[in-house]
Design goal:
2 domains, seven-stranded antiparallel sheet, PInositol-4-P-4/5-kinase_core, Phosphatidylinositol Phosphate Kinase II Beta, transferase, 16 helices, four-stranded antiparallel sheet, single chain, Phosphatidylinositol Phosphate Kinase Iibeta, Chain: A, domain 2, kinase, 13 strands, 1-phosphatidylinositol-4-phosphate 5-kinase activity, alpha+beta
Length: 490
Amino acid sequence: QQSVKCWVHLFSFLYCRRHSLWQHLSLPLFSNIMHFFILATSTTSSALKGAIQLGIGYTVGNLTSKPDRDVLMQDFYVVESVFLPSEGSNLTPAHHYPDFRFKTYAPLAFRYFRDLFGIKPDDYLYSLVNEPLIELVNPGASGSLFYLTSDDEFIIKTVQHKEAKFLQRLLPGYYMNLNQNPRTLLPKFYGLYCIQSGGINIRLVVMNNVLPRSVKMHYKYDLKGSTYKRRASRKEREKACPTYKDLDFQDMHEEGLYFDAETYNNLMKTLQRDCRVLESFKIMDYSLLLGVHVLDHREGGEQGQAGGDGRRPVAQRVLYSTAMESIQGDGKAAEALTTDDTMGGIPARTHKDEKLLIYLGIIDILQSYRFIKKLEHSWKALVYDGDSVSVHRPGFYASRFLKFMSTRVFRKTQPIRFSPSKRTRTSIPALKSCSQEILSSQADERNEEDRRDRLVGARSLASLDGQGTQNKSLTDQHLCQGSGGGIGRS
């Protein structure tokens, strides 16, 4: 045990040297690094998965006995704790894991969140408890561990102490936002838990799964809208399923991804609304996780990482869980578009007319613009271009994020216009709609009538001029005769 602690301290020192110390310096740093290092072994990771399933099964099952009621403000700050010894007790079952304490944060509030998305307690327990959890082998840069449920619905992520505390403070506002906008690309939190064992605290959050394993992701991107160090490392590129960044996206998709006008407008409205929410909570440094499935690359027997037929059980599907459902405003339209052909993705195309399915969601929203982040931005702004770094004040970060998404990543397809070839351009007349033909015929008739009126008017004017000249000569003749007779009589 002493040797393990020495290795942990050495790993902590090297970790701080590798990364910026002032970025990661916090009180729970060493405990988080310790649990990350210890959980790297398979035996401890297996014990952790078993403890997670046992604790969630007990707390959710116990919650079903409580009556349903409206969520009150104090419900967001309730923390329930239960001790689960390995030999069992009058309330808890026996197990073969080390003794541990399991904490549940805001159980009634999270039960409301699950009800809002149509998650029944039995389905929640079946996904998280009855089937084994799948550990993802490609964790993020934060060092967190990720576990995925077998049905592809939920993902469990280990979070740091400060992130768990921030989520607790965020819950009341998060509750109000979900009431108003259940269709969102923001993370959907279904539970917040903590496992205490041997002096180590492991905090867990249950969220929606953005990228389904049943669909092969040919490209995966983590986009922030910044350019400073926003290129995947060589080590990342060597992975089987690398996660690329902003500069990589611009190199690989220089023209962006094209959507039809309605889908593009719905997508941008959803992103704008979500960014306003994040800005109001002073949240920054979030990312858009973007998965691209190329339909033209799909073969007859190709399946995703999980295999199977690529379909989720209909009875267990979570409301607003797919990318298309998250941006659609009309429930009927979303139901019509979410078919086996789209597999929950958003149809898109490249500038080369390749057919794509897009899966996306906003991730890593538990970063607030506080002292450490302000210090990080100030330091990077002195060394590099302040507008290009990822860490920035929330207002600027949101506007830069939206500008990058609307101009570089997502683009609107233009309506297709008829353009005949040179060979048929002289032989094929221009196509007109019925209304255009009617309007053109009416215009021709009006032009013909105007031409006739002008001709008639010209003829009338000429006749009038001739009659006027003739009348004038006759009048002069009569005047001359009258004047001559008068002189003779006189």
